[in-house]
Amino acid sequence: MGGKSKGSPKEVKANPNNYDAWFDYLRLVESEGDLEVIRETYERAIANVPPTKEKSFWRRYIYLWINYALFEELEAEDVERTRQVYKYCLELLPHKHFTFSKIWLLYAHFEIRNKNLTAARKSLGMALGMCPKDKLFRGYIELEIQLREFDRCRILYQKFLEFGPENCVTWMKFAELEMLLGDADRARAIYELAVNQPRLDMPELLWKAYIDFEVGLSETDKARALYERLLERTLHVKVWMSYAQFEMSAAEEGNVLARQVYERANQSLRGAGEKEERILLLEAWRDFETQNGDEESLENVMQKMPQRVKKRQ
């Protein structure tokens, strides 16, 4: 078989930046099992640094380093060399342009496997200083949770939220952690800080989590107060409908309270001229009265229905 086969010495020589060819070639070399030859081939492969600062060109290249580190740790069982591979790789990355959270986290986990907690934390701290990425924060917090270092998790969450205060999921996870630790007051304080942020990426998700949190604690009055506060910010039909559902299941006189919510919602949406939303609300109210009301209360809702909806009945 003449010519250049993919992953042959000729192919990688002709196209040294074709990383897929290097992967194929390395697979061939590794199957022969000579550690020195494998190591030398990895060294030759990683010498071909991408000629551009475009992250897309680095994605394949970075896996050469990852595989090299894994080879040194698992096959060659050389801890010091593995450490050097990770360190050289991290020095090489142009962090000002982009980084790979994956490499930082792999290196930290490697140090922890080798009982070197200080080095792992130092490295991740450095990573957050240079390139504070969501994935890095999440990975670092996850690691401290596994280590049961909850005070460190709190500090990391605070830093994470300084970096991205609009991120609702981060606030929710922080509150969840406090609940896991049995501190409802801290969790509530976190939710309070969260809902008062000037800008949030998913406010409806956050408010729902806060209300569910109070419901879970059987704090009916607190949950009700949250619905009222939310309605000062938005009169969305879904909030009204959720509020009515809540009242139905929250108290003995739930049906009476739910009916009052439907009444208020109908007036509010009619006043705002929200036709489509009001129809949605009236249909939900009608279903509620069909199940929980009497002929009179159902008739009361039917009379509020816009004509075209009535005909459809």
UniProtKB/TrEMBL annotation:
Domain Pre-mRNA-splicing factor Syf1/CRNKL1-like C-terminal HAT-repeats: 78-216
Chief location of this protein within or outside the cell: nucleus
The name this protein goes by in its record: Pre-mRNA-splicing factor Syf1/CRNKL1-like C-terminal HAT-repeats domain-containing protein
Record-level GO BP terms: spliceosomal complex assembly
Subcellular location: Nucleus
GO annotation, cellular component aspect: post-mRNA release spliceosomal complex; precatalytic spliceosome; Prp19 complex; U2-type catalytic step 2 spliceosome
InterPro entries: HAT (IPR003107), HAT_Syf1_CNRKL1_C (IPR055430), Syf1-like (IPR045075), TPR-like_helical_dom_sf (IPR011990)
Keyword Transcription: no
Keywords: mRNA processing, mRNA splicing, Nucleus, Repeat, Spliceosome
Keyword Repeat (UniProt): yes
Entry's family note: Belongs to the crooked-neck family.
UniProt-annotated stretches for the region Disordered: 293-313
